[in-house]
Amino acid sequence: MSAPAIEKNLLEKLDPDGRLNLAACLQCGRCSSGCAMRLETDILPHQLNRMILLGMEDDLLRSKAIWMCVSCQTCVSRCPMKVDTPALIDKLHSITRTAPGDLNKVRVFNDAMLASIRRFGRVWELGMMAMYKLKALDFFTDLGKLPMMLRKGKFAFLPRVGRGRSAVARIFDRVHRARRAGL
Amino acid sequence: MKYAFFPGCSLESTAKDYLMSTQAVAEALGIQLEELPDWTCCGSTPAHATDALLAAALPARNLAIAESLGQDVVVCCAACYGRLAAANLALSGDESLRAQVTDAIGHEYSGGVKVRHFLQVLREEVGLAEIRDRIVRPLSGTKVACYYGCVLTRPKELSIVDDPEDPQIMEEIVSAIGGEAVEWPFKTECCGASFSITRTDTVKRLCGEILKMAKESGAECIAVACPLCQTNLDLRQADIEKATGERIGLPVFYLTQLLGRALGLSDEALGIGKLMTDPGKVLGVGL
After folding, report:
1. pLDDT class of B286 with cuts at 50, 70, 90
2. What band does A180 get if pLDDT is binned at 50, 70 and 90?
3. B278 in contact with A, Cβ within 8 Å
4. Which CATH architecture has domain B131-282?
């Protein structure tokens, strides 16, 4: 078996200008030792860095790791070479719409929140949670907390629709258009 | 001291007490926080996890409004702070992103509006000496674990503190109001943020470790400056106690609530009644 070759295609897709410093990764593992999800994830940050360099796109897009990242920024903050692994993970999200198994909930949550922002300009938490629960088929988690939270006035019953909502809808439309044009 | 204030979505609901206590403290200290007109959501994690242009444009729309008013922006939600500051960083030196953002928001935005966290205003503009002078009801040695979580300290370029591994800004304020800030090693660990909803067990594990360490370090309460940190450590605490069989009983205050109390403001004005874990023992009142 021959040694795997450095594969530039994936790196160029994720970081065409080299701003995210991936090529400088020393594989020292400092990122992985501080990763908040190190006990639960399937690919650690230093491994993920290397897999991008090796062009292992399919394995990365099927991984739990890219959906398990909680964006705590510990890896990039401690990296001696400033490799921006969380930004690389964000870029991997932008080329896949599927998350494995139960992690699909993370994607569903992101979509529910973006839908709320697009619709109202701001997140209406109560409505967003209802939408998330319907789409994730997750009806019972935290249901018992709802009465207390309502009693303490932790949720607004109605969305506050400001004048900014049409400006926000425009932003979503422009971003969608830019993506379709391949920008 | 006059600023454009960006409250953010959480402060309209789950973190209403953060909004109330921030506004009350600002008024008491003569900081003018004028709500940014027509502000809209910063996009939070779902935006940056989905699209880089969306993640820059949503904050930029708000920053452009502040620029037209000629005001710096003050934020107290840690997540909003991070996204607004990150948008400035992403826009600096990236002409093509700036052009795309201009097109998306329909305005020019230079990327130059200063974004500051409310803690920075307290520490740098008001100052510790002034805060100390205004104290009428000191914390009298209450042991406080200051918990920063992630986005106030990381990444380094956006951090509000000198040392992301051992920040001190909250400890300095706690000391100024007569509290005792405990030394503890988990102050910049992650609480799991919005995974609270999608991966509840993960968040219970992370918060359980943080709460246990705070308790073992001698803290009688925790101080935070982020709505997600507060909600996770407070709302999940009873479940964590149930799962582990160990009593924790650590109230989780917004730092502004502790500061407000020390300034003599009422519990009603500070939203103390909205806390889940009973703060009565620490505050010396029954709630």
Report:
1. very low
2. confident
3. no
4. 3-Layer(aba) Sandwich (3.40)
